[in-house]
Backbone:
């Protein structure tokens, strides 16, 4: 029963994240006006706005102008619902669940905005650092010193990654937004997991970069945003960090 509620809650939050993704880069209010079709501007009826269900009932088309509704909407709602469910399995009905659901929700918004606009909005990452630090005072899963060192290690070690990235791809690929994002990840995950996040995201990012380079030819000029890789690395660290770290040190023994 509670598991079902976690999925429904996740889908509802996902619906709100879609609003943030569309409106934050335009610096519009995320509260008013209510949802409307981006094509014909007609307000969307509440029953058409039910996460996932609305999209399926409408067959992916606007009720009024029949233009296709972006797949982004059901996709984000589905991913957020799945995240909520997995976090609930891991942490149960606890504050820790809420803490990390907030964290993953922020990462989802950051990832999609970075993919669309190549920016990481400060309005998410900077308060995120504060919320992570404050949360660590309340949550048993992470201590405040760990969170604080996580912020410093996450923000500070970016220089190393930026240098590595520049060496691999012969151009600058990181920005100030990435520094603040990594500091936020450090605040929520602590210093060990933020290092793991950097390693995982550099590794995955390099593979994807090399594949794109091979596909597009040598002189490709596509800027690959790094935010999505950092977010993916952070989520893997959150769910599998302890297992990966103990596996690694087990190998070294
Ligand atoms: Zn429409």
Residues:
């Amino acid at each position: 029963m509670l598991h079902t509620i976690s999925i429904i809650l996740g889908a509802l939050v996902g619906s709100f994240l879609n609003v943030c993704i569309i409106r934050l880069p335009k610096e519009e209010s995320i509260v008013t006006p209510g949802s409307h079709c981006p094509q014909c501007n007609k307000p969307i009826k509440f029953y058409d706005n039910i996460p996932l269900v609305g999209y399926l009932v409408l067959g992916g088309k606007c009720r009024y102008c029949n233009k296709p509704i972006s797949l982004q909407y059901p996709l984000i709602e589905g991913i957020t619902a799945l995240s909520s469910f997995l976090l609930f399995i891991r942490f149960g009905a606890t504050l820790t669940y809420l803490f990390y659901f907030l964290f993953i929700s922020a990462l989802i918004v950051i990832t999609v905005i970075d993919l669309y606009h190549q920016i990481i909005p400060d309005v998410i990452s900077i308060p995120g650092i504060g919320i992570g630090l404050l949360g660590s005072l309340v949550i048993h899963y992470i201590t405040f010193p760990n969170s604080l060192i996580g912020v410093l290690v996450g923000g500070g070690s970016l220089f190393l990654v930026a240098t590595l990235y520049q060496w691999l791809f012969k151009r600058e690929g990181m920005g100030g937004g990435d520094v603040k994002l990594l500091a936020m990840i450090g605040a929520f995950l602590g210093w060990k997991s933020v290092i793991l996040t950097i390693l995982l995201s550099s590794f995955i990012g390099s593979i994807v970069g090399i594949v794109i380079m091979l596909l597009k030819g040598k002189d490709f000029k596509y800027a690959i945003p790094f935010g999505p890789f950092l977010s993916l690395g952070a989520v893997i660290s959150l769910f599998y960090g302890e297992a990966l770290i103990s596996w690694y040190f087990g190998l070294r023994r």
